[in-house]
């Protein structure tokens, strides 16, 4: 009986227009407070910054662990071959170390390729020495041993070889490898060259 009376009282209160308005105001107030607190939480996190640790030179596994500990994401943007580099090591990072960034920022990494990059060497026979060296340099070959031999065509490439083997056109060799270039030095007339060729042909014919 008492429970029923309490229930009736509650129903009467809720049916009262003034009580309804007060309840609505309380609910709206609580909702506004919740929204403001949520917005403040987002705003404070938005302005929170982190210092990017320098991971250049480190292996990817170690670099990734350090960046994650600093609250940063990371992504490998490129994998390249650099002469003398350590396979799997970080070569560059963006943003650079000690930069101030927002938490959760992605750091982009360029790493040393783990495999040896093979590069095709184009046909360079009959090119001038300067042209041939320029082409090889542009392909990443900086160490070029030049041997000059007697030839009627001074400064003209006769052959390019790697580890003692003459290269075929577009044969692939490790990028940055040491190549040997044989270049004509002059000192032999065209007639002498033809005579030597004829002698070689005759010798091979009678052998």
TrEMBL record:
Keywords: Membrane, Transmembrane, Transmembrane helix. This is Beta-lactam-binding protein with PASTA domain. Pfam families: PASTA (PF03793). Residues 47-113, 115-185 form the PASTA domain. The chain crosses the membrane at residues 21-43. SMART domains: PASTA. InterPro entries: PASTA_dom (IPR005543). It comes from Dysgonomonas hofstadii.
């Amino acid at each position: 009986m008492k429970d029923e009376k309490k229930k009736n009282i509650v129903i009467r209160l809720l049916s009262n227009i003034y009580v309804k308005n007060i309840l609505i105001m309380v609910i709206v107030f609580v909702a506004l407070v919740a929204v403001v607190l949520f917005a403040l939480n987002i705003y404070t996190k938005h302005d929170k910054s982190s210092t990017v640790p320098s991971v250049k030179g480190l292996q990817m596994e170690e670099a990734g662990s350090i960046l994650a500990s600093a609250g940063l994401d990371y992504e490998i943007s490129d994998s390249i071959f650099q002469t003398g580099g350590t396979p799997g090591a970080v070569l560059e990072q963006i943003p650079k170390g000690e930069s101030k960034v927002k938490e959760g920022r992605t750091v982009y990494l360029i790493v040393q390729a783990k495999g040896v990059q093979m590069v095709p060497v184009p046909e360079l026979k009959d090119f001038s020495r300067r042209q041939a060296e320029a082409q090889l340099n542009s392909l990443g070959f900086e160490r070029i041993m030049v041997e000059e031999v007697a030839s009627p065509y001074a400064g003209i490439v006769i052959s390019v070889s790697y580890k003692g083997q003459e290269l075929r056109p577009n044969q692939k060799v490790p990028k940055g490898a040491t190549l040997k270039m044989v270049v004509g030095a002059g000192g032999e007339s065209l007639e002498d060259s033809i005579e030597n060729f004829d002698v070689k042909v005759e010798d091979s014919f009678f052998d």
